[in-house]
Automatic annotation (TrEMBL):
Cellular-component GO terms for this entry: nucleus
Membrane spanning residue stretches: none
Domain MgsA AAA+ ATPase C-terminal, chain residue ranges per copy: 17-168
InterPro entries listed in its UniProt record: AAA_ATPase_RarA/MGS1/WRNIP1, DNA_pol3_clamp-load_cplx_C, MgsA_C
Keywords carried by this UniProt record: ATP-binding, Nucleotide-binding
Pfam entry (one): MgsA_C
Matching SUPFAM superfamilies: post-AAA+ oligomerization domain-like
Protein name: WRIP1 ATPase
Entry's Gene Ontology molecular function annotations: ATP binding; DNA binding; enzyme activator activity; single-stranded DNA helicase activity
GO BP of this protein: DNA synthesis involved in DNA repair; DNA-templated DNA replication
Amino acid sequence: GEEHYNCISALHKSMRGSDENASLYWLARMLEGGEDPLYVARRLVRFASEDIGLADPLALTQAVAAYQGCHFIGMPECEVILAQCVVYFARAPKSIEVYRAYGNVKECLRMHTGPLPPVPLHLRNAPTRLMKNLGYGKGYKYNPMYKEPVEQDYLPEELKGIDFFKKRET
């Protein structure tokens, strides 16, 4: 019932708050109460990107490995795998930079009126002669061919200068 959601919320918030003791408690309470370990593992995969993100890019690898380990061996053996992951996450640095930036992109798309801007011609793939003749791919700079970063726009003209990482959510 409701306690299922209360416990996963407490686990999530304990890891976010870097409290490894509380994180282990809520994990054990869920598992010892009969919670599906794969449910917990799925929530850890989400937590890895939502709350830790780029502060520790290996967190997602940890979460996916924990999910796979739980899938392979099941309970009760997989409890230590989840415990390791939960403690790792509680101790990990946290960053919501990507989570917030992606939210800003979604807001930009939702708030847009009219048709969305077209993909700039130089970014379009040109697998046919007709597409090449229409200018698809013309002027594209293939970055690996340059020693230095190249100046090139990757967003539609209407979005030039926008930085989804710096935009504040309202």
